[in-house]
Write a structure and sequence with these properties.
heterodimer, A: MetI-like fold, 12 helices, globular, B: about 350 residues, Rossmann fold, six-stranded mixed sheet, four-stranded antiparallel sheet, 16 helices, about 25% strand, disordered C terminus
């Protein structure tokens, strides 16, 4: 079986695989993956079951918690992050508005998935970033994977995820994480690599072990960068809300999808703006927190 | 003679992918340039032998690229040598296991860095306790000791500042306090004062000498500045292209430079401020002179002599007369003319 169909080559048609061969190749890949998902789909689903339970629990918790308490918690979080009354008032007003426009439950569902996705991205992404910073070989292996994760259209990896796990919260969460994890990995790696060599040498000279150096010098000094990564990860997770809704994740994305298919302008805009409001609050609060981490740089002069 | 503290022998460092393979070539006289051009390796240090004595300040001097920073990093093994031996209190640093090395770095040798290398996210106090926390000392005790040392270097009241809020000189005092706080016998100072401006530098030298007169640590001090070397060094070693070209006291270096490289270094210094009466003193038919201590520099002695009516100095040590120095001797020594003959002093 020839791999190139010589008869088809012209000035405008580059060398091509014969049509049948190409079809067989695609069918082969699809068949193999279907076999795989039939064989292991359930095992994989079981593996993710605790995650699903947690997600459900967390979402229910947010929805069932009395709204005044949620407002207090959100206000407190934004105070803790930004130390600014303006931010606190802005947060509370934004969420009151969301509730007033009947988007409370969807917003809580979105908060649930975005928080869980962000926490998981941090828990997985930071150790990977640390490994990358430690070894050039690991970095060379992981960087192209991150490039793929960031540039491949989300719909493309939705296909295998849905084939394996069906539609629902967990595949949605995976889709969000695939898209949102690269920044935290990259910026952890970068932050640790940028730590002043002389400071590391000083840590060595005073007899720091590998872990002491990591936790007392490298991570604290990389924290501003790591935090920029966390901020980016949150933003990217939020931007996946609509796509996640396509595979069955509840939240603000669902009404947006409904608005698209039915041409409901007002519904689409309101839910879209609710996502924007959450994004702005998260962004400002986390940036203010990141800035506060660098307070020690205040009054820095050239020395 | 004080006790031998650090003995470095036969130390070589060749930077590159396979330094050990080129050791024999270097031993057989292949130079730095040839090694780099033909074999792609950089000769860092070759055939270094130094004895460093307890309680003294050993200065290692050289221009940039001479290997002095490489050498000091061998003492606590921040850099691994290609071959050689470094004995400290009779123990070979180079054969220490990883955990022995950590212990050695925590308890036996501390270091001060050219660019301070403080932890920017920690306060002055938390920086000073760093070495103590590595030693496993409890927080409150560590802070107590750290405060003591901060006070000693003149930083009382700055405990809660961050390094970025301090001037360079103050940051380096923190560096010094951090190193002293661990109570290690050996203090490694890598161009510790080079980044400071001249007045602050002189100030820091003074602080170091004051502390040393009381602490008697073994200090290895790297510098490219001869004035600094002469001021604080008990013993001076001069490095050039990874080679030790001269070792000796400040008097030796100034009076008898081993080669043109060293002579070049000493060319511009004020010799009268470095040379002491003890160095020039010699036995002559006794002349009537004023009695001065042998540790005085020529500058001070000339001043005293000019104020008196006499023409010569009777040099004393611990109250005993050990020789004499004439006005003419001092003029010769302070200018750079070679004078004298075999049985008196020989200098250039």
């Amino acid at each position: 079986m020839a791999l190139i169909d010589w008869s088809k080559i012209t000035l405008t048609d580059p060398p091509q695989m014969p049509r049948e061969v190409l079809r067989e190749l695609k069918k082969g890949i699809d068949g193999t993956f279907r076999e795989f998902s039939r064989g292991y789909g359930e095992a994989i689903e079981n593996f993710f079951h605790p995650l699903l339970m947690f997600l459900k629990w967390f979402q229910d918790l947010l929805i069932e918690t009395p709204w005044p308490l949620i407002l207090v918690i959100l206000g407190a979080l934004s105070w803790w992050g930004s130390r600014s009354w303006k931010m606190v008032v802005g947060t509370v007003v934004a969420f009151l508005f969301i509730g007033w426009l009947d988007m409370w439950e969807d917003t809580m569902a979105t908060l649930a998935i975005v928080s869980v996705a962000t926490l998981l991205c941090i828990a997985i992404g930071i150790p990977i970033g640390i490994l990358m910073a430690r070894s050039d070989r690991v970095q060379a292996m992981i960087l192209p994977v991150l490039d793929i994760m960031q540039t491949i259209p989300s719909f493309v990896y939705l296909i295998p995820v849905v084939m394996l796990l069906g539609i629902g919260k967990v595949p949605g969460l995976l889709a969000v994480m695939i898209y949102a994890i690269p920044p935290i990995v990259r910026l952890t790696n970068l932050g640790i690599r940028l730590v002043d060599k002389e400071v590391l040498e000083a840590a060595d000279a005073f007899g720091s072990s590998y872990w002491q150096k990591l936790f007392q010098v490298q991570i604290p000094l990389a924290l501003p960068n790591i935090f920029a990564g966390v901020n980016q990860t949150i933003m990217m997770a939020l931007s996946m809300v609509v796509i996640a809704a396509m595979i069955g994740v509840p939240g603000l994305g669902v009404p947006v999808l409904r608005a698209v298919s039915n041409q409901y302008l007002a519904l689409g805009v309101m839910n879209g703006l609710a996502i924007v409001a959450i994004a702005i609050i998260f962004d400002r609060v986390s940036q203010a927190f990141g800035k506060r981490l660098q307070k020690h740089r205040e009054g820095e002069h050239g020395a | 003679m004080p006790d031998l503290k650090i003995k470095i022998s036969d130390l070589y460092k060749i930077f590159g992918s396979n330094g050990a393979a080129h050791i024999d070539k270097v031993r057989n006289g292949v130079g730095k340039t040839e090694l780099l051009e033909k074999h792609g390796h950089v000769l860092g240090l070759q055939n270094i032998n130094i004895d460093i004595f307890a309680g003294r300040i050993q200065v290692i001097m050289g221009l940039s690229g001479s290997g002095k920073s490489t050498l000091i990093r061998h003492i606590n093994r921040l850099i691994e040598p290609t071959t050689g031996q470094i004995m400290i209190d009779g123990k070979d640093v180079l054969s220490m296991s990883a955990s022995e090395l950590l212990h050695f770095r925590r308890f036996d040798a501390s270091m001060v860095f050219q660019k301070f290398a403080l932890l920017p996210h920690r306060t002055v106090l938390a920086n000073t306790t760093y070495g103590l926390s590595m030693q496993g000392i409890e927080q409150s005790e560590a802070e107590k000791r750290a405060s003591h040392w901060l006070e000693r270097v003149g930083l009382a009241g700055f405990e809660d500042r961050f390094p970025a809020q301090l001037s360079g000189g103050m940051q380096q005092r923190v560096g010094l306090a951090r190193a002293l706080a661990t109570d290690a016998d050996i203090l490694l100072m890598d161009e510790a004062f080079s980044a400071l401006d001249p007045l602050i530098r002189a100030d820091m030298q003074g602080i170091l000498l004051d502390l040393q007169s009381e602490l008697h640590k073994t200090i290895v001090f790297i510098t490219h500045d001869l004035d600094e070397a002469l001021r604080i060094g008990d013993d001076i070693a001069i490095l050039r292209d990874g080679n030790l070209v001269q070792q000796g006291s400040s008097q030796d270096i100034v009076l008898n430079p081993a080669d043109d490289y060293v002579a070049d270094f000493t060319k511009d210094i004020n010799r009268a401020r470095v040379l002491t009466l003890g160095t020039l003193s010699h036995q002559e038919p006794s002349v009537d002179g004023i009695a001065l201590d042998s540790a005085l520099t020529l500058e001070q002695a000339m001043n005293d002599l000019a104020a008196s009516e006499k023409e010569a100095i009777t040099v004393t040590k611990d109250g005993q007369m050990i020789g004499q120095v004439t006005m003419r001797d001092m003029i010769y020594a302070a200018s750079r003319v070679k004078a004298g003959d075999g049985d008196t002093v020989t200098y250039r």
